[in-house]
Amino acid sequence: MGKFILDNFFVINEGLIVLAGLIAALSYPKFKKSRVKYFIYFLIYIVFIELLGYYPNYSEKISWLQWIPVLTKGTRFEENLLWYTVFWNIGCALFVTFYFFKVIENKRFKTIIKFGGILFLFISSLRLMFNVEGYFTNERDNVIIVGGTLQIMLCVLLYFSEILMSEKIMAFYKSFHFYVAAAFFVFFLIRTPITFYQIYYNGTDTAFVNFRRFLILFCNVLLYVTFIIALIKCKPQSQLKENISTNT
């Protein structure tokens, strides 16, 4: 079983992300008048980032795409680290910041999220400008990775705080936003330690490589399956408010 998962890591991982994007697109009519639509845009954005950013891996295995490694071999675009840094580590953190800025209603919390996002963008831009060459030598920037994680966790914790201080606590389990926040919280709680152990990454250490891949896949399955279930099961926030008012 373990060998099957490792051999098909790309298919399982990317297939799950594409499935989440597809479910999101199909769910758009249901949520088009709610703030969930911003998260649907986010999931479609992730599909785009993943499918384009994974080219060093799948282009070598798909016959009609093998011209890509031939074209990029020996160039700065042979690796995809800069792409993921800009569009995943920075882009996704800012996208999630925007989403929770729209979802959270507390003005003080919105201000904190706004300035946290601006500070993260400023620091990330400086890191990119002064270390751009490092991204072409497969050098990861833990400052950007950890900074993005902290910004997302800040948004999640402020959202949870708002729930606890308002009437939303009465029906939190019916809210799509709650499942998004909970999924991100658990995801980064498990995934973040990998960042600090990345400096010990050695391609010849099979045990660590396999463990890392299993952990990444587990985190992604947990994250995207939660999104898929929430998109299918949850109702738009307007309907949720109507149900609450009817029951009170």
List the helices and strands and how they pair.
Layout: H1 2-7, H2 9-31, H3 36-53, H4 55-58, H5 67-72, H6 81-103, H7 107-130, H8 142-164, H9 176-197, H10 206-233, H11 237-247
Helix pairs in contact: 2-3, 2-10, 3-6, 6-7, 6-8, 7-8, 8-9, 9-10
Explain the overall architecture:
- This protein is mainly alpha-helical.
- It has a single domain, classed as Up-down Bundle (Rhopdopsin 7-helix transmembrane proteins).
- The protein is built from eleven helices and no strands.
- The longest helix has 28 residues, at 206-233.
- The protein is globular and about 55 Å long.
- The termini are far apart.
Q: How many separate domains?
A: 1
How far is it from the N-terminal to the C-terminal residue, by CA? 50 Å
Mean pLDDT comes to 83
Helix content: over 70%
Number of helices: 11
**The CATH topology:** Rhopdopsin 7-helix transmembrane proteins
Low-confidence stretches: 242-248
Would you state the CATH class?
A: Mainly Alpha
How many strands, which pairing sense, and closed or not: the largest β-sheet? none
Short characterization:
With 248 residues, the chain is an all-alpha fold.
What structural keywords apply?
248 residues, 0% strand, disordered C terminus, Rhopdopsin 7-helix transmembrane proteins, mainly alpha
